[in-house]
Amino acid sequence: MQTPELKKCACAQPFPVKLKFAFQPIVDVSTRSVFAQEALVRGENGESAGSILAQVDQDNLYAFDRSCRIGAVKAASRLMQARTELLSINTMPNSVYDPHTCLRTTIAAAEACNFPVSQIMFEMTEHEAINNFDHFVSIVRTYKSMGFVTAIDDFGAGYSGLNLFARVMPDVIKLDRSLIDGVGGSAIQKAVVGNLLDLCGKFDIKVIAEGVETETDYRALAALGVTLFQGYYFSRPVLGALAGQDFLDVA
To answer: DSSP character for 131?
Structure first.
């Protein structure tokens, strides 16, 4: 039964499209293990994330974000039984007007599936902070206080990066692909990534290199000290299942 708060909340309305999820691993090469499984939204018949996002507007944005959070938890709970890696969920903080109300159903879904809240990582892109910076910071801080792991996605792609970093102090940052693609042949990209690693290391913030597609880029990043990787070089997303462990052989 919905609480009065949820009845008034736009996110309580159903999203009109049935969602499924593909999972892509985030690999820890230092331990040759999986750090997290990222849940990537797909359509009922495997339609791309882009085709689903094209159907999201201001009227159903809240419902979409809620459906993604709950659906990802339910799908992961069936696939990740007795596994200890994180479940990474993309979320839109600007679609959450009050996290204590809007995340209540997510926490309830996790509890119903016996999925630990502490095993959930929310990825938020810094592009969202531009719309309402103070609200974004407040929401991320509340996520942390509720026991979720917080990650800033596409870090380095926007203009709010270091300011957001200082205000939020996330648990994890995911480096934007503009810093990753071609890093093996770019002294400038190597310098930027190296400095970000030094900065994050001072505050015990983990760094993920996403969008890694070539061995050259992987080797260059590993030489800089990156240990967490995601991308086609390791594994493509798998619809409704977890990738096998073969991807660990390329580390």
So the answer is: T
Encode burial over 61-85: b for 16+ CB neighbours within 10 A, e otherwise. bbbbbbbbbbbbbebbbebbeeeeb
Reference 232, options 249, 207, 212; nearest CA is: 212
Q: What angle do CA 27, 33, 38 make, to 5 degrees?
A: 45
Distance, CA of 10 to CA of 61 (rounded, Å): 9
Structural element, H or E, at residue 26: strand 19-28
Going through 67-116 in order, the beta strands assigned E by DSSP cover 86-90
With a CB cutoff of 8 Å and minimum separation 6, the contacts of 236 are 24, 243
For the beta carbon of residue 172, count every other beta carbon within 10 angstroms: 24
Q: Is the pTM of this model over 0.85?
A: yes
- Enumerate the H helices of the chain as residue ranges: 4-8, 49-53, 61-79, 99-102, 104-112, 133-145, 161-168, 177-180, 187-202, 215-224
| Bridge partners, 107 (sequence order) | none
| pLDDT tens, residue by residue, 157-200 | 766 678 888 888 999 999 999 999 999 999 999 999 999 999 99
Q: Rounded to an integer, what distance in angstroms lies between the CA atom of residue 34 and that of residue 83? A: 10
The answer to whether 212 touches 218, Cβ cutoff 8 Å, is yes
